[in-house]
Amino acid sequence: MSAGPPIEELHIADAPQMKTDVPGPRSTELIDRQQELDSAAVAYPKRVPIALDEARGATVRDVDGNVFLDFFAGIGVLNVGHSNPYVVEAVNDQTEKLVHTIDFPTEARLDFIEAMDGIAPDGLSGESKMVFGGPSGSDAIEGSIKLAKHYTGRHGMLAFEGSYHGGTAGALSLTGGRKYKAGYEPLLPDVVHAPYPYRIEERGSDADATAVCPAADCCGDLSCARALDRVQSVLEDPYGGKQTPAAIWVEPIQGEGGVVVPPKGFLRGLRDLADDNDVMLIFDEIQSGFGRTGEWFASEWDGVTPDAMTLAKGIGGAGVPLGAMLYHEKFDTWGPGGHIGTFRGNVPAMRGGIRAIEYIREHDLLAHARDLGEYIRDRLREAADANPELVDVRGRGLFIGAEFRDESGTPRKSAVKAVQQYCYERGVLVWSAGRHGNVLRLLPPLVMTHAQAETGLDVVVEAIEAHAPDA
């Protein structure tokens, strides 16, 4: 059986296609109704006022009939596209048969675990265990905190500035962003945040990285050297003021922090420091994993294997919620009920995840993500020639960031908002990221075609050029 239709057949035709000004009258009506009925915590319609009706592949139709190209994919959830028929078929078939299983064995559950082990990085594949808890990435992070504490007997934690790990108490404790924590302290104690390598802030420095870096094989990047030096201090300084942490939590590529790709030596340096100090190394692959970067997991770009990986977002295949942690079997020391959750047996999501893996393989979407991502970054770099405030374009695969700063180096959040609004009005959905909201973030589905990317980038580049300082 062929793994579904080719990517060219997945989408609503002729996107973008704008039939009304946006937001249209029906969208406005539903947004107003939502404001009356829904929580004040609702956020996304504040930035992109749209009410959704239908979505397929890399396209979204609103309730007014406007069709958008989607460079957002539900915050990187819909890696094989909206309503991929090959995935949805399995989800629907399973839903008609059995949905909620807690952690009783089912073929779907065991097949999914085997499928995830099959795409795990070297060092985990064939030697892994998987645990499910609640259905979100935050739940996966909570499970990783429990595993690290249980295995090591320690309670301290080390994470990074610029990080985002989720909205629950433990995940918020690891998260670097202050705005997410405001009003919710105190959170978990003994959490230390070290700098995450951020090359753009080291531009122009002539300091010697090798004089700072604790790595045996320094990559020569000063921001990486300073980050690893701080991590070593936390782990090894007898007067550092904190106990040795149970684990290090790190995003192989920071997402909310601005699609920040660390230098080549960073993850390897963390692996060595963790090994030297009997500390677990846990990679948060919730946004960067499941093919997003053109490898199954972002850490594979650097050839570094973690002790555990937290997973969610795309692993449910069709946007069906599923959170999990994949970890090396030697850490599987907890007993029955060591980590629990009512919805840890979402078998339709597991069927969807299996089908998504099959679809990605059958249609060679990892290679497609690498090629298409390079095309998109090249287009953005060309746009920088016309707008000097676009100071950096980065990413891997279809995990892409473009950072805006003015001539003095001050972050330009307003530039990103202007580009986002311009694109929205012309039928292209993009989003933002970064510590200061000054990074344009693109997370298109892996099934976006080259023609769609070209059409969308025409609009994005036009927006960047239209909002240049001297335009």
Task: Provide a brief overview of the structure.
By secondary structure, the chain is an alpha/beta fold. The protein has two domains: 12-84 and 364-466, Aspartate Aminotransferase, domain 1 (Alpha-Beta Complex), CATH 3.90.1150; 87-362, Aspartate Aminotransferase, domain 2, CATH 3.40.640. The protein contains 14 helices and 15 strands.
Task: Give an overview in words.
By secondary structure, the protein is of the alpha/beta class. It has two domains: 12-84 and 364-466, Aspartate Aminotransferase, domain 1, CATH 3.90.1150; 87-362, Type I PLP-dependent aspartate aminotransferase-like (Major domain) (Aspartate Aminotransferase, domain 2, 3-Layer(aba) Sandwich). It has 14 helices and 15 strands. A seven-stranded mixed beta sheet has the order 4-10-9-8-7-5-6, with helices on both faces. Strands 1-2-3-13 form a four-stranded mixed beta sheet. A four-stranded antiparallel beta sheet has the order 11-12-15-14, with helices on one face. Helix 9 runs parallel beside helix 10 (265-276). It is globular. It starts with 24 loop residues before the first helix and ends in a 5-residue tail after the last helix. The mean pLDDT is 96.
Strand order of the largest sheet: 4-10-9-8-7-5-6
Percentage of residues assigned to helices: 25-40%
CATH architecture of the largest domain: 3-Layer(aba) Sandwich
Uncertain ranges: none
Strand residue content: 5-15%
Please describe the topology of this protein.
Layout (H helix, E strand, L loop, with lengths): L24 H13 L6 H4 L4 E5 L2 E4 L4 E4 L2 H4 L8 H13 L9 H13 L8 E5 L4 H16 L4 E4 L8 H6 L3 H4 L9 E4 L27 H15 L10 E4 L14 H12 L3 E5 L23 E4 L12 E5 L18 H16 L2 H20 L5 E7 L2 E6 L8 H13 L2 E2 L1 E3 L5 E4 L7 H17 L5
Parallel strand pairs: 3-13, 5-6, 5-7, 7-8, 8-9
Antiparallel strand pairs: 1-2, 2-3, 4-10, 9-10, 11-12, 12-15, 14-15
Helix pairs in contact: 4-11, 5-11, 9-10, 12-14, 13-14
